[in-house]
Amino acid sequence: MLFARELGVGGSERQLTEIAKTLDKKRFSVHAGYFREGMRGRELAGAGIALCPLDVTSFRKPTAIREARKLVRYLQQHRIQIVHTFDYPLTCFVVPVARAFGVPIVLSSQRGSRELIPNFYRGLIRITDLLADGVITNCRALEAQLVQEENLPRRRIHLCYNGIDVARFQQLPLREQASREPVTIGCISVFRPEKNLGLLLKAVSALSVSFPQIRILLVGGGSEEQRLRKLAGDLWITNRLTLLPAQANVLTALKEIDIFVLPSTTEALSNSLMEAMACGRAVIASNVGGTPELIEHGKNGLLFDDGNLADLKRQMAKLLSDAGLRHQLGHAARQTIVERFSIEQSARRMGDIYQEMLDRKMGNL
Q: The whole model's pTM is what?
C-alpha cells in the first residue's frame, strides 16, 4: 500500500501513481492511501488501484485518532504486507501506525533534501527512521546525505531512481528556427524559493541584448509568483515573460520550450527535468543533488555552478547561439531517459526491493 498526502500534480505523487500502475500485478496487489484527493486519484481508480482516503487535516485533532483506527482496519482487512510512504506527512502518520499493528514491511521515502522539511516534521521523521525497515531514496546524493547527516546505516537505504513513461513523453519535434525567430527558455516547476527562478530571469535579462529573440515561459504557480512578476518588471523583461499555473498535461508547455533550464539551489532527481529530457529538449541545470546523476555535462545537457549567474549565462549563450547543439543534446537527453530512467525500469527496481525485503522478513533468504 502506497501513501502520499495529496494525489495531485507534485513529483512524489506522480511517481507513486506511475509505480502503482506499473508494478507487476502478478506479484503485487496495489492499494493507495492519501489525505487529499486530486487528479491522480482519478487516474489510479481508472487503473483499478484500490483507494483509501484518510481525513486528516491536523495530527493534533481527535479525527487523527479516528482515521488511524480506520487505517488499521483497512490494513488488516486487506492483509497488507508492505506499506510505503512517499512524503513526510504520510511518513509521520502511517509509519508508526503500521509498525504498531504488525505490518511486516514498513518503508518510508526521502525524495528531497531534509532541509526543506519543516522543523516540527523533521523531528518526527527521525523517529520514523528508527521504526521503518528502510528508506527509499531516488538518487545517490540523498543516500549520502542520510548517511552523513542523519547517521542512517547505509544498509537500510535503498536506491530507486524516478522513472518516466517514455511512450507518453515521446521526443517532440524541435522547431527549425531562423536566427531572428523567438527562442523560448522554459521551466516547469512550482514557484518556490529553492527553485531559484529569479536567477533565470536575471540571466534572460542579461542576455536579451545579444539575443533579442529570447522569451521565457515558467509553468507551475506558487508562493514566488508575485515576486517573480515584480523582478521581471525591475529587469525590464515583463514583455518577454509568460507565467502559467500548474498544468495537468505538461506536454503542451514542453512543446513551446526550446531550452529547459532548472536553476534550483537544492534538488533530488527532478521529474520535470526528466520529462523535458524525454521529450528531446536541450536542458541546463544547476550542479546540485542528484542532477549530476542524470546529466553528464556536454553529453546530454549542460550543468552550471549553483547560484552562479555568470556561469548560467555562459551555458545559455551556448545553446541560444547553436541550434545544432540544441538538437544534439536533446537527442542524447532522450536516449538517457529511454535507456536508464523509464518507468518500467523504476517499477521493476521498486518491486525487487519490496520482494527482497519481504523474503528476508519471512525467512526465505
A: 0.92
